C-alpha cells in the first residue's frame, strides 16, 4: 500500500530556468525499502531532500507537481514543515550528532515540541536507542559527549534521533558511504529491521547495496526517473538501454 505519491514533480534551483528534476513519478510503499540509484549529479539527493522540503532552506528554489502524503500535497504553502519533518525523518551521508550528550541528541526534537515529562522522555529514549540497535552500547553513558561516538555508532544515533519523533517515512542519503565495511553491514541490517515499521527511501551509489536491501529500485539519469520496479527485475532485466548500460558499468 502506498504511503507517499510523487506526481509529475519537477524541481528548479534558485535563479535557474532549467529543471534539475523533471516530471518525476514514483510511489513509496509502507514497510518497504526503495533505493534511488544513478550517476552523481542525476538528482537523487535533490529528490530525497524535496520530500521533507529541506530544499526550502535556500530561498528561491521552486517546485511543480505534487508530493502526496496522507492525502495532502506537502508542497502546499500551508504545510507545517516542523510537523512534516517529524513524520518524514532524514539521515544524512555523514553522521551528524549534535555537540551535546547522547541523551540530549535523541530527545532534542521532542523537547523542541514541548514534551517535558521525564518519565515519557526516558521511555522514548530507551525505545529509540533499542530500535536503532544502540542501547546496549550506550546505556551506561547516556550523558557522555555524542561527538565521541564512532562513525557507525554516530549514524545509529542519528537514526534514533529521527525515530524518537515517531516518523512514518525515513530518508537515508548515502548513509554508509563514510563508514567502514563492518559499520556498513550493521546499518544495512538495521534498515532491513526498520522497514518492518517504516517506509524507507535510500540514496546509494552502491548497486550491490541496493540489491541487498531494496525491495524497489528506481534509476535516475540527468534529472529524470528512467525506470523503477522490483529490484531483481531492475538489475537482471532492465527495460531501457540507459539502465542496462548503467548496470553494466558503461555509464556512471
Automatic annotation (TrEMBL):
Annotated ranges, domain ABC transporter: 4-247
Entry keyword ATP-binding: yes
UniProt cross-references to Gene3D superfamilies, sorted A to Z: P-loop containing nucleotide triphosphate hydrolases (3.40.50.300)
Transmembrane spans: none
Keywords of the record: ATP-binding, Nucleotide-binding, Phosphate transport, Transport
Listed Pfam families: ABC_tran
InterPro entries assigned: AAA+_ATPase, ABC_transporter-like_ATP-bd, ABC_transporter-like_CS, P-loop_NTPase, PstB-like
Molecular functions per Gene Ontology: ATP binding
PROSITE patterns: ABC_TRANSPORTER_1, ABC_TRANSPORTER_2
This protein's name: Phosphate ABC transporter ATP-binding protein PstB
Gene that this sequence comes from: pstB
Amino acid at each position: 500500500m502506498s504511503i507517499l505519491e510523487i506526481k509529475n514533480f519537477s524541481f528548479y534551483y534558485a535563479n535557474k530556468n532549467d529543471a534539475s528534476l523533471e516530471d518525476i513519478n514514483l510511489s513509496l510503499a509502507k514497510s518497504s525499502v526503495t533505493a534511488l540509484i544513478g550517476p552523481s549529479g542525476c538528482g537523487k539527493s535533490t529528490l530525497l531532500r524535496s520530500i521533507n522540503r529541506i530544499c526550502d532552506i535556500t530561498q528561491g528554489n521552486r517546485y511543480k507537481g505534487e508530493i502526496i502524503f496522507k492525502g495532502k500535497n506537502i508542497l502546499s504553502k500551508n504545510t507545517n514543515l516542523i510537523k512534516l519533518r517529524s513524520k518524514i525523518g532524514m539521515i544524512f551521508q555523514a553522521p551528524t550528532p549534535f555537540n551535546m550528550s547522547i541523551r540530549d541528541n535523541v530527545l532534542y526534537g521532542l523537547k523542541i515540541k514541548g514534551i517535558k515529562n521525564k518519565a515519557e522522555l526516558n521511555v522514548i529514549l530507551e525505545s529509540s536507542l533499542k530500535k536503532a540497535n544502540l542501547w546496549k552500547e550506550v546505556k551506561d553513558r547516556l550523558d557522555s559527549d555524542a561527538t565521541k561516538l564512532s562513525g557507525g555508532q554516530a549514524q545509529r544515533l542519528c537514526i534514533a534521533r529521527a525515530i524518537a519523533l515517531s516518523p512514518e517515512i525515513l530518508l537515508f542519503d548515502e548513509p554508509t558511504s563514510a563508514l567502514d565495511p563492518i559499520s556498513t553491514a550493521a546499518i544495512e541490517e538495521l534498515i532491513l529491521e526498520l522497514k518492518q515499521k517504516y517506509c524507507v527511501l535510500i540514496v546509494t551509489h552502491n548497486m550491490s547495496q541496493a540489491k541487498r536491501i531494496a525491495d524497489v529500485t528506481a534509476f535516475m539519469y540527468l534529472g529524470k526517473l528512467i525506470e523503477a520496479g522490483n529490484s531483481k527485475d531492475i538489475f537482471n532485466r532492465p527495460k531501457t538501454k540507459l539502465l542496462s548500460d548503467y548496470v553494466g558499468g558503461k555509464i556512471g
